[in-house]
Design goal:
The chain is α+β, with helices and mostly antiparallel strands and 199 residues long. 46% of the residues lie in helices and 16% in strands. Strands 1, 2, 3, 4 and 5 form a five-stranded antiparallel beta sheet that branches.
Length: 199
């Protein structure tokens, strides 16, 4: 690891300017995904996270699907900025799709009825941790990354295109590539308004 944990957490940012260049091998990107899925925690050790890695032309295909889905709902006279935004994601090298397996969640709801309302919440929390671990790991490798949520617009087509099981629920899309522009300086709210310490 070229950075310590705290530096990597601080340096993780949202990058919209990315290119199709890669900074490491496809095998290394796959290792990051596998490590994340294996070691990131989940409630009751449910391991409900499911991840799909799309590289190169498969990545392009995802954002073509997204663009066409948006074309159906965005008025033509307003489509140009939307197209530019989608193209900025398509300009990247790859995208990671995050899913949650609803069968696992439903099974836990039946086994532990007292907590049934919490399992979907815990599932989302675990997914967020998976996203954060991958995002930070890709940042360490030098990639520019962002997190997108076109779930309802593209989920059916994504499942059809890549033969994804119906019980996998799409949570987020994470495009990445070599950074081509720096993000704006991050603004922070005062910590004294956000943290309380007792004892």
């Amino acid at each position: 690891m070229s950075k310590d944990f705290y530096t990597a957490v601080a340096d993780r940012r949202t990058f919209y300017g990315i290119s199709k260049e890669t900074l490491v091998s496809d095998e290394r990107i796959k290792e990051i995904v596998e490590y994340t899925v294996k070691h990131t925690p989940s409630a009751f050790n449910s391991q409900s996270a499911r991840v799909v890695l799309l590289l190169k032309k498969e990545h392009d295909k995802l954002w073509d699907i997204t663009k066409e889905a948006l074309r159906k709902v965005v008025p033509p006279e307003q489509f140009s900025p939307t197209e530019d935004k989608i193209n900025s994601f398509r300009n990247g090298y790859g995208t990671i799709l995050f899913f949650e397996d609803t069968t696992v969640i439903e099974s836990l709801q039946k086994q532990f009825e007292l907590y049934k309302d919490n399992f979907p919440i815990w599932s989302q929390q675990s997914s967020g941790m998976h996203q954060f671990v991958v995002w930070t790991a890709l940042e360490i490798e030098g990639f520019g990354v962002s997190l997108q949520h076109y779930n309802e617009l593209i989920e059916d087509e994504v499942k059809k295109e890549w033969k994804i099981p119906n019980n996998w629920k799409l949570i987020a899309q994470m495009p990445f590539g070599k950074p081509t522009a720096k993000p704006d300086e991050k603004q922070f709210q005062p910590l004294e308004n956000r943290i309380k310490v007792f004892g």
